[in-house]
TrEMBL record:
One of its GO terms (biological process) is regulation of DNA-templated transcription. GO terms for molecular function: DNA binding. Residues 145-210 form the HTH luxR-type domain. Residues 3-121 form the Response regulatory domain. SUPFAM superfamilies: C-terminal effector domain of the bipartite response regulators (SSF46894), CheY-like (SSF52172). This is Transcriptional regulatory protein DevR (DosR). InterPro entries: CheY-like_superfamily, EvgA-like, NreC/VraR/RcsB-like_REC, Sig_transdc_resp-reg_C-effctor, Sig_transdc_resp-reg_receiver, Tscrpt_reg_LuxR_C. Keywords: DNA-binding, Phosphoprotein. The keyword Protein biosynthesis does not apply.
């Protein structure tokens, strides 16, 4: 490997990833980017000379898998290994469906990350050992998500649609004609009902939700 680009908005984690890459590939040149725009600029400058990209799904201003989709669309031959703290089978499945070359959890150890990098650079697909990967598993996961979405009120579905668009509570309140505290209460209840811990996880976990379940319009 000649060059690796690490795309993550947390400096300490970028440093840890860079150290891991250098431990496995001492001669590698490691570059870092904290945002999608910076990553795209560096890749354009590299002009096809980048060997590997380590990508966090949670980046500033990026919703769900949009960052991965943008990178894959611009650089179809680039080896992309997703490194994320959101590591459910469903998220792994969606990352691979968006044409990532592999996925490794941020909770994984150095040996697992090095093994994933080696597999991706060898042209193989790297997946967590716990990844189920079967069609039945994801049909079941989709059924669970659909049931949880069905438990949301029409108002909560409208708020969810805006959250997935990357809107802040203030923007959602303005667009839906309600108070900001009302939106905040809806978001908290959505997180509880869908059993996710953050807005970012909410967007990622519902990436494949059907548009018909997420209506627009006022409350």
């Amino acid at each position: 490997m000649r060059t690796c680009l690490i795309v993550d908005d947390h400096p300490l984690f970028r440093e840890a990833l860079a150290a891991t890459v250098r431990s496995a590939y001492p001669e590698a040149r490691v570059e870092e980017a904290a945002a999608l725009a910076d990553a795209l600029a560096r890749l354009n400058q590299a002009a096809g000379r980048m060997d590997l990209l380590l990508l966090d799904l949670s980046l500033p201003g990026v919703s769900g898998f949009d960052g991965l989709a943008a990178l894959r669309g611009r650089f179809p031959d680039l080896a992309i290994l997703v490194v994320s703290s959101f590591d459910s089978d469903k998220v792994v499945h969606e990352a691979l469906a968006h044409k990532a070359n592999g996925f490794v959890s941020k909770a994984a150890g150095r040996e697992d990350l090095c093994a994933a990098i080696t597999r991706v650079l060898a042209g193989e697909v790297a997946m967590p050992a716990s990844y189920a990967g079967s069609r039945e598993a994801f049909q079941s996961a989709d059924s669970v998500l659909a049931a949880r979405l069905a438990d949301l009120t029409p108002q909560q579905l409208r708020v969810l649609a805006k959250v997935r668009q990357g809107k802040l509570n203030k923007q959602i309140a303005y667009e839906l004609g309600v108070g900001e505290q009302t939106v905040k209460a809806h978001v908290s209840e959505i997180l509880h009902k869908l059993k996710v811990a953050s807005r970012t996880q909410l967007v990622i976990e519902t990436a494949s939700a059907t548009a018909g379940m997420l209506p627009d319009g006022g409350i």
